[in-house]
Amino acid sequence: MRMMNSADLPDTIPLFPLPGALLLPRARLPLHLFEPRYLQMFEDVLKTSNRLIGMVQPHNGPKGEEQLHAIGCAGRVTQFSETEDGRYMVTLAGISRFRISKEVDGFSPYRKAEVSWAGFERDLGPTEQDAGFDRVEFLNSLEKFFDAHDLRTDWESLKDADTELLINSLSMLCPFEPEEKQALLEAPSLTTRRETLVTLIEFSLRGGSTEEILQ
Predict the structure, then answer these.
(1) Which one of 35, 59, 158, 177 is at 20 to 30 Å from 201 when CA atoms are compared?
(2) Full-model pTM
């Protein structure tokens, strides 16, 4: 995939609010699009040079109305296929996180926003490293977590996986609550994300509510 730089990033992007769906830079997220408004969004995105979709977590506001978290992650459409009944199977490659400046009113059936990419320059750079990562200890905790949640994985591939790919993939795939996924998204560095991930895993193993540690 062609690397993008800050000059390629647009000021306005379409938004796809999806609870619990986490996209991180340099990771990939499969999407299944079937709602008419998102089918329209996808077809419009294919006409742009950047092919970016902004993934963002919705949450309930003080009066129960749907609001959006300020920070999301934009992904570039890199693969897609169309089903016989008109749905799309799409793969997004994570490019950069963004901060919503304001939503844009318009005639499209889907939401758009003016966004700022400032503060997330590292997302466009090379793979991040985590000098303090203890893979053996991490995988031991992860195995207990997977057993507790009746999850399965290829442990041999995890032992050999690139550190960033391992941490980011598990952050995206593990069955955490949307607010916990948001905390993983907003982690300023790979090390911070790994520390957050470990905290969530360990707290879950102790039978606690992970919401308590995110207050």
Answers:
(1) 59
(2) 0.89
